[in-house]
Amino acid sequence: MLQIALTLAIFVLAVIPMGKYMYHITTNKRTFADPLFDRVDNGIYKVCRIDRKGMSWKTYALSLLMTNAVMVLAGYLVLRLQHALFLNPNGIEGMEPTLSFNTIISFMTNTNLQHYSGESGLSYLSQMLVIIFMMFTSAASGYAACMAFCRGLAGKRKDLGNFYEDMVRITTRILIPWSMVFGLILIWQGCPETFGANITVETIQGKLQDFAAGPVAALEIIKHLGTNGGGFLGANSTTPFENPTIITNIVELISMMILPGACVLTFGKMCMDRKKEKTAAAVKIKEPVFGKQGRTIFAAMSIIFLVGLAVCFVSEKAGNPVLETAGVGQEMGSMEGKEVRFGVDQSALFTTVTTSFTTGTVNNMHDTLTPLGGMVPLLHMMLNCVFGGKGVGLMNMLMYAILTVFICGLMVGRTPEYLGKKIEGREMKLVALVLIIHPLLILGFSALAVSTQAGLEGITNPGFHGLSQVLYEYSSASANNGSGFEGLSDNTYFWNITSGLAMFFGRYIAIIAQLAIAGSLLAKRQVKASIGTMRTDNVIFAILLVFIVYIFAALTFFPALALGPIAEHLTLWFS
Amino acid sequence: MSKKQQKTKFVTNDILRSSITGAFQKLHPKYMVKNPVMFVVEIGFVLTLIMTIVPTIFGDDASLGYLRSYNGIVCAILFVTVLFANFAESVAEGRGKAQAASLKKTKQDTQSRLIGRDGTESTVSASRLKKDDIVLVKAGEVIPNDGEVVEGIASVDESAITGESAPVTREAGTDFSSVTGGTTVVSDWLKIRITSRPGESFLDKMIALVEGASRQKTPNEIALNTLLVGLTVIFMIVVVCLYPFATYSGVQIPVSTMIALLICLIPTTIGGLLSAIGIAGMDRVTRFNVIAMSGKAVEACGDVDTMILDKTGTITFGNRLAADFYPVKGKSKEDLIDYAVMSSLCDPTPEGKSTVELARSLGTRIDDNAAEQIEFIEFTAQSKMSGANLPNGSIIRKGAADAIKAMVKKDGGSIPKDLDEIVERIAGLGGTPLVVSADNVIYGVIYLKDTVKPGLVERFQRLRDIGIKTIMCTGDNPLTAATIAKEAGVDGFIAECRPEDKITAIKNEQAEGKLVAMTGDGTNDAPALAQADVGLAMNSGTAAAKEAANMVDLDSDPTKILEVVEIGKQLLITRGSLTTFSIANDVAKYFAIIPAMFTLVIPQMQMLNIMKLSTPMSAILSALIFNAIIIPCLIPIAMRGVKYQPMSAERMLLKNMGIYGLGGIIVPFAGIKLIDCIVAPLLSVLGI
């Protein structure tokens, strides 16, 4: 408990300066490191001939799509041809087409669902040129989209900003420097960082064992910082090479939480009242820590996060009654599939964080979580708005905010408005699209999987748990989370293709629709708030938002969850 | 329209009868498809109907003996659900139609005298009159179509449209030159230039609007409808996908149960009532004798931030009424009052009448009989005074200070030293001083005041409570304007206001991101009415003003804008509240249906059956029945609108959230349990 509280306290403290820093990056304000970065960035702009003009939402979305498409193409070729390329000391074969398709989509969409095992499936070149490279660019793409979205909502400029400029600034000013700082801590704690081949040693029992190594630390840090989640090794952050100590565990936790959390603060600052901003500049008042609008969103996310964490923790602590009767003590909680060096506390926290912040890295096997403990990560991926992946989670939460405003706003006797913009038919259409696409992908593909032979073959635990496995796979794909429930034999044509499609549509349809909303709100006349306006910066709104998120999620996913984790829980405890 | 009519029952027998027929007529798919949520229910009805005839057509397990009767019951409930929704809409329309019918009575085809270009007169049917035709209408005849008076002056009875029995004066070349088709000339004659094409007159438009025939969905309604369709799609995905999940888990669910689940989940309550709420909102405005040209206008009312109101006629009575008497030094107040009364006894102007009234209340020695001996001197623009010549030769005058002073000086009288001070003080208060003199002696001053209509101060406070700012426009000087503004409690004022100042004020407010409402009647108000987001024109006003506005008040009472704004808000609140209620209902329905679906295979699911419903079948049917009967139960709220009291957005949100959000979660738990208690024994009789 203390460990959990401590980690969360560090998070809250760290997020405040980070939010401020990111706000300055987003709005082109001065930061302490400008003299260095300006030179680097200007060099990049010059070499790439980037024209830093503001873009409309259509141009912005198109630039994002095209840039991503080029990267996908290049990455796909590297994966297919890795056997023929250099930096392949372990002699890894080229990747099979559907797996390459799945992998490349997975990394481009910031999902990092892995149907391969890093140590046996990828050369070092692929790890670096495809995996690590995309960990930077996909995170930057997501955050760039979010910045554009926030600019649209804040309505302080006439365009959404320039995609290329955003990409460069985010990469050079946020991702690379912070990766270096945290990466060194990981190396200090024992993460390998080498181009040498795997090490073969003779164990005490006299048998030979391969130890997979490689440039692990470099991947490890961006894996968390960019809320990516794909491990260098198959077993991800459970292995001592990826996550050696409790210190690295906390560093990894903080580094995956910090940017999505800071994002919300950035949004709040961007939406600050224009007037206030002016007076603040004139009187030199200190910038507030949170913008008021960001504060409610942050509060709502925190409430949902803490509820999930509590459920997961209590459920894991309670252990497994069947094992109890079989004579296996459950005093430590359910330790099946958990690392002893982390225990239930750090495991429950890591599980909730990795799915809330849609990173997808794991430090314990989610497949072996208790049914309700496993339902929490599943549910948080279905919500996909509890902080969420870099930027994307904020955008999703704002969809719910718009929905809340729309339903509750009417009840104060005005047509609904959010941040001074009227929410009308066009916005509702796009919000509805975003809200439909997520359950469609999760439930649709899951239904397909359980009703086709190809899908059923992948399920290793028949029964309710099997359904949880399937739901988890597609939730993880569609929410661009990437954590695996594991236990699913998913490297088949069926799973590679369907989860690839889920990742693709889950990412791009939502982002395009959200950018369209930003564009449409930006074009609207600003409406002035009065005491007759529903406020979106107070406690009531935060609570309403939580309710709306829960009600919508419950209404959408309750039947599926009832047949999966809930049925499993009931049969486990009450039979 | 009188208060009596507003209080009538919201459904009469006639409306009830026509609504029931309407409910069946609307079952036509071509009509139903306009309301996607209910259309889904209708499709569900058709499917279950097929399954009632051939129970195993979709692969249901034939060994269940009760399958046919179960399908039949589901089918029947779905049918009733659709009927209820259609009924709600029909009732709303019916109330409008009843009003339209009374309007139509005035729209009989009349013969009219057409004046040709050469001045000849010919008799033509009113329906064949074209725009710009000139017609002559004499006393006792009905005005054939909307038009502008080009010649003549007459009293017109407009009760057919306004319900106001006192005739009004219509005169060429004034702000009161527009006439409406269907009204009757009571005295004299009018030459009228027709301004609208046949079938497009104001009356025609009104009938169409009231009937709901030309009703278009408002922007907010469209947005809400999008959300409802979105929800319907989500729930279709949920239910369709649940089937393979269930099959995978080894649960065989009858198809009709899946349909029942779908219908319970999609927002049928608000889907069924949405259009009824919109129609009823318009209807409430109409009952208030205001014709909204579109539903959009009513909706915009709810969003109004600023109201620009004319001082005269809207905020004040416009007549300057006597408020006090100020004697000059050395003269008694009694003398002043007596002379003031004598000068005013025969004065028919409001100033004169109010002087006499005030004097009576303060006590005067002059009685009405004195009037017979008085020779009244009328006010003229030249003399700027009025008064009385008494039989004994006394000359009593009251009038503007300058005029009286000049007269007194000319005739050798003296001006009291404190007169100027009194006069200035009154002017400073925003009043008009009337100086009273008798036989060249100045006795004092009557303080005339522009009086704020009673109750307005509280009304403005109510508006402030809901965040609406009021701005008063007046032609008065800034000093006078400030006084009235303070007295009425408006938030701002524009003094010495010209029509173009009004437009500037509206534009300024709009630039700040505010929605502006205003009232107006004269032609020079037309541009401002068009610029405002909500423009309420007076029916007595000119055609141009009515054309520019998006609402017309038939009673020509400018203060009504305040009520119309509240009606607009109430409409939106009703819509939001019922949507919240509808969505919140789903929670309980899940707890009824999900355990019922799976208990047979997963007995532990019974733990989720927190309502302790007797059997799975009765649980499902109870939820479905609740889903159906909640629609007619909410019709009264949809028609009347939820209770509206001005309060801050915060409190209003909490209150409505408590009633419709929390209530929406709790009520169905109780309702479904209750229905289950009734239904379960019946079902066991049927063997289900």
What features would you describe in this structure?
The complex is a heterodimer of chains A (575) and B (688). Chain A is mainly α and 575 residues long. Chain A has a domain at 366-573. Helices cover 65% and strands 2% of the residues of chain A. Chain A is built from 20 helices and four strands. Chain A has helices at 2-26, 34-48, 57-80, 97-108, 118-121, 124-154, 163-189, 216-225, 246-270, 274-283, 292-318, 321-325, 343-356, 371-383, 392-409, 425-451, 453-458, 464-478, 493-522, 539-573, and strands at residues 199-202, 208-211, 417-418, 421-422. In chain A, the strands form two sheets. Chain A has a two-stranded antiparallel sheet with strand order 1-2. In chain A, strands 3-4 form a two-stranded antiparallel ribbon. In chain A, helix 1 crosses helix 9 (246-270), helix 6 packs parallel to helix 19 and helix 15 (392-409) packs across helix 16. Chain B is α+β, with helices and mostly antiparallel strands. Chain B folds into three domains: 3-99 and 211-287 and 566-686, no CATH class; 292-315 and 454-554, 3-Layer(aba) Sandwich (Rossmann fold); 323-452, Calcium-transporting ATPase, cytoplasmic domain N (3-Layer(aba) Sandwich). Chain B has 23 helices and 22 strands. Chain B has a seven-stranded mixed sheet with strand order 10-22-21-20-11-18-19, with helices on both faces. In chain B, helix 5 (67-106) packs antiparallel against helix 7 (202-211) and helix 9 (255-265) runs parallel beside helix 22. Chain B is elongated, with a radius of gyration of 34 Å. Classes of the chains: A mainly alpha (575), B alpha+beta (688). At the A-B interface, helix 15, helix 16, helix 18 and helix 20 of A face helix 8, helix 21 and helix 23 of B.
